[in-house]
Amino acid sequence: MDTDVIVVGAGPTGLMLAGELRLGGADVTVVERRTERSWESRGIGFTARAAEVFHGRGLLDRLENAEITRQGHFGGIPIDYGVLEGSHFGVRGVPQYKIEEMLENWARELGVSMRRGFEVTGVRDTGDGVTAIVQGPDGRGEYSARYLVGCDGGSSTVRKHANFDFPGSDATREMYLADVAGCDIHPRMIGELVPNGMVMAAPLEEGYVRIIVCENGTPPAKDREVTFADVADAWQRLTGESIHDGQARWVSSFTDATRQVTEYRRGRVLVAGDAAHIHLPAGGQGLSIGVQDAVNLGWKLAATVTGWAPDGLLDTYHNERHPVGARVLRNTRAQGTLNLSGKSVEPLRAVMSELIAIPDVARHLSGMVSGLDIRYDMGEHGHPLVGARMADRELERADGSTEQLARLLHPARGVLITADDSEEMSRCAAGWSDRVDLIRVASVPPGPGEDRIVTESVLIRPDGYVAWAAPGGGTLASALRRWFGVARQARDVQDSHPLVSAP
């Protein structure tokens, strides 16, 4: 094999996945058809859960001018995401090219091999590996690996050549985007409904403004290249303002097409990010869900190729992420109906505005769009934290020192945090010490919204989700075996052990 894993695509999803795989000990080659990084702004922020993911790898501080904001929206209807205790809507003011630059630098530091200027033109699953047919500067060649992951966008070559089913709905409208300078445009941060459409304007760096124009009745045109004149004409028709004298450094378009693969894995080929799901970009969820796909998959695939993964671990990638993707598709379609359907939905918008004013409704929608309410089905429901993400908090170690929980996740290993200082706990944890770090604390403090939850110990997966908690979460060793494989020293964990068997 040339490498353990080939990652096709050097966007945020592919680069995040490559870094995660390297943290897990896998050899990784990223294949990207572009000869250099894109300098297009595209996404200009990400959700609160994506911010937590970056923070959990020590990456959030690498992003300059990242602005954390509480103010967001659902379908253009404002929501204060501060209704989620201790949280926010997400991060604004960071163009996608800066995120890609940060992630590529991180991946290269970890030893990821980058192959730019190479386009994958075919994929062949050989049963015990995968072969990618690649067209490069010196002609056609082949790369082989144990697994291949398509992170190559909504028009994914990997998805097509590996015969993934991609059902959904075709585009019904086209929207224009541009980064414009040299004209006076007042901010319209969450989009402004105007007769016959919607417009948005968000300040960027260096005097540029990101604008989005949705003109009702504009059908999608696959083969037409959008120009700045098209954007400026539509802007003037909708607002009465002329921006024709401005300068655009980037012009593009997108649609409301909505599709999702029926399976995230076919044999030794997997897909993530836009290669697995496409939808209307609403609330910064596109980039964010792709990064979360990568962090869910990375440690599991690395465990598989390095040999310690328990049976079925890699299958949990589809089982956990497909429902999350389906839910994002639903909420973005709902937001598109609210924000892009003109006067016909004004009664619906009025009712939704009344509902969003109810705190419980605002919390529900905020948790949905931010990604903070994701809860994976882990089959154990004895403790309320199991399956949910473990929010950051300050921990007081048993020796009196303090540390942020997010910092413990930087190596992408399992973390067992416990106030149980017994010898039994030490012996049980020792069997997985090559995969799970044992952190003894004076107590496990509650996180945001957890004041009524009693937690004495918690086992956190590398992606930040809780795999086991005590009291009431079942036996520790069974959770360790389920998520981290067979103990290194099985003799340390006997079936009669009090942490293995229920009393």
Automatic annotation (TrEMBL):
Keywords noted in UniProt: FAD, Flavoprotein, Monooxygenase, Oxidoreductase
Cofactors (names): FAD
* Record carries keyword Transit peptide: no
Q: Which domain of life is it from?
A: Bacteria
Which ranges carry the FAD-binding domain? 2-332
| Keyword Flavoprotein included in the entry's annotation | yes
Q: Which GO-annotated molecular functions does the record name?
A: FAD binding; oxidoreductase activity, acting on paired donors, with incorporation or reduction of molecular oxygen, NAD(P)H as one donor, and incorporation of one atom of oxygen
Put simply, this protein is called Monooxygenase
